[in-house]
Design a protein that fits this description.
The protein is an alpha+beta fold. It folds into 2 domains: 93 residues, Ribosomal protein S4/S9, N-terminal domain (Ribosomal Protein S4 Delta 41, Chain A, domain 1), CATH 1.10.1050; 87 residues, RNA-binding S4 domain (Structural Genomics Hypothetical 15.5 Kd Protein In mrcA-pckA Intergenic Region, Chain A), CATH 3.10.290. It is 42% helix and 8% strand. The chain has a 5-stranded antiparallel sheet with strand order 2-1-3-5-4. A hairpin with a 4-residue loop joins strand 4 and strand 5. Helix 3 crosses helix 9. The longest helix has 16 residues. The two termini are 28 Å apart.
Length: 201
């Protein structure tokens, strides 16, 4: 499936946030890219603001348009507040759980670990980044992948208790997905209600 492979700093500067992780360029140039990026800001329409928020969510979680719309439709059919359920579905993706575990420094890195068959769910290898992890399931690193330098480098110095819905076990390099996170616990700066309003038009 196609993925955005262009310059990530350009996208981060577009939103004015380090959505792909720490960005040295963004800290120096916290304004949109392009010739007139640091000039006078033009007024954005209501639709433009809503669309921008959807794009930010898509780039943050590495999800394409059709996939994102399918998740929104699933969220809208579910019980609860649609916007919150949408973020909870995104948080439950396997690549995101691997990222939250600290096994990769970025979601793109986590997606690669999954695609390369380094990750198992309940002891069975799963190479689908969009796989939806259910509460109670255990996500772990395959035995032969535990010595990979990229994983060892990522997990060193990580605060594994940062996300209360993921219980990490350092000895086995695995984590149990305890429960679906509450919106207040999800740290992403996304105004999900704007996305709901966009799709409701």
């Amino acid at each position: 499936m196609a993925r955005y492979t262009g310059p990530k700093t350009k996208i981060a500067r577009k939103f004015g946030e380090p959505i792909f992780g720490p960005d040295k360029v963004l800290s120096k140039k916290n304004y949109p890219p392009g010739q007139h990026g640091n000039g006078r800001k033009k007024k954005t329409s209501e639709y433009g603001i809503q669309l921008r928020e959807k794009q930010k969510a898509k780039y943050t979680y590495g999800v394409l348009e059709r996939q994102f719309r399918n998740m929104f439709e699933k969220a809208s059919r579910s019980k609860g507040i649609t916007g919150e359920v949408l973020l909870q579905l995104l948080e439950s993706r396997l690549d995101n759980i691997v990222y939250r575990m600290g096994l990769a420094k970025t979601r793109a890195g986590a997606r690669q670990l999954v695609s390369h068959r380094h990750i198992a769910v309940d002891g069975k290898v799963v190479n689908i980044p969009s796989y939806s992890v259910k509460p109670g399931q255990v996500v772990g690193v395959r035995e032969k992948a535990k010595s990979l330098e990229v994983i060892l480098d990522s997990v060193s110095g990580v605060n594994h208790s940062r996300y209360p819905w993921v219980e990490y076990d350092q000895a086995s390099m695995s984590a149990k997905y305890l429960h679906i996170p509450e919106r207040a616990d999800i740290p992403e700066n996304i105004k999900e209600q704007l996305i709901v309003e966009l799709y409701s038009k």
